[in-house]
Amino acid sequence: MWIFACVFSAVFAGLTSILAKCGIRKTGSDLVTALRTVVVLVFSVITVLAVGSFGTVSSIGMRSWIFLILSGLSTGASWICYFKAISLGDVNKVAPIDKSSTVITVLLAITVFKETDALAAKLAGTALIAAGTYLMIEKKAAVKEKSGGAWMIYAFFSAIFAALTSVLAKIGISGVESNLATAIRTVVVLFMAWGIVFAKGEHRALPGISKRELVFIVLSGVATGASWLCYYYAVQNGVLSVVVPIDKMSILLTVLFSRIFLKEKVSAKAWIGLGLMCAGTLAMVFAA
């Protein structure tokens, strides 16, 4: 079941980036992140109520609380960096760098959680993903951007925080129902995102958001909520070093959707890189 959850997580994550890009054409990326978080929280709370896990809040230990909060802070930082990056650059430029968090996460899972089963296949798969990511990044990095390449810096920080998120969440949801853990982490992200919005005065732009952009922001939040619920179910019940690469395969959908709906060009070299990333992921999945 956790394998299927991973696949659905990747599908919804692929939709998230495209929908979010449509929602930040004029709206600031921090405000978009804050608005999406509200939608994700509503989605999470409804799910928690449906499964009836609110009653277990009192049984969550201090250690789990600490790591869930840290995971939420790391998620918030990753989101803020990611949506800032796609507001400055093309989705298919940002996504490969963001997905490089897979390499960091797998290596951390092997060292921290001792997930050494089929180690050779995991390392080989990680190497393929790293090589594929490099091929996709190299071409894009050479393109001169209006933002002066700032999108790349934000994308790299997004990857680092995303890797930390998965590891911290794996520790934090031990003994905690996965949907409840998702809701708790989302509350942390909500406070963080809106704190930044109010600190920067971006809340004043709320009345001016167009209905079209608001619809895409809400849809992006729904897709994120669905992706999270599937992902953290998989994290809790599966093998982290396999869960993360499958989830990061959302890049395949992201690149395809960006080509179809946003008309973003993809070079032959980037397609080769994408193929290597897919091959590396499949190597780790079959090894599991």
Strand content: under 5%
Which structural class fits the helix and strand makeup? mainly alpha
Query: What is the number of E strands?
Result: 0
**What is the overall silhouette?**
globular
Q: What percentage of residues falls in helices of 4 or more residues?
A: over 70%
- DSSP summary: helix tally: 12
- Report Rg: 18 Å
Tell me the distance between the termini: 14 Å
N-to-C series of helices and strands? HHHHHHHHHHHH
Describe the fold and architecture.
This protein is mainly alpha-helical and 288 residues long. The chain is built from 12 helices and no strands. α1 runs parallel beside α10 and α8 runs antiparallel to α9. The longest helix has 27 residues. The two termini are 14 Å apart. 53% of the residues are buried. About 2% of the residues have low confidence.
Summarize the structure.
The chain has 288 residues and is an all-alpha fold. 79% of the residues lie in helices and 0% in strands. The chain starts with a helix and ends with a helix.
Describe the secondary-structure layout.
Blueprint lengths: L1 H22 L5 H23 L10 H27 L2 H8 L2 H12 L6 H23 L8 H23 L5 H23 L10 H27 L2 H8 L2 H12 L6 H20 L1
Helix pairs in contact: 1-9, 1-10, 1-11, 2-3, 2-8, 2-9, 3-7, 3-8, 4-6, 4-7, 4-11, 5-6, 5-7, 5-10, 6-12, 8-9, 9-10, 10-12
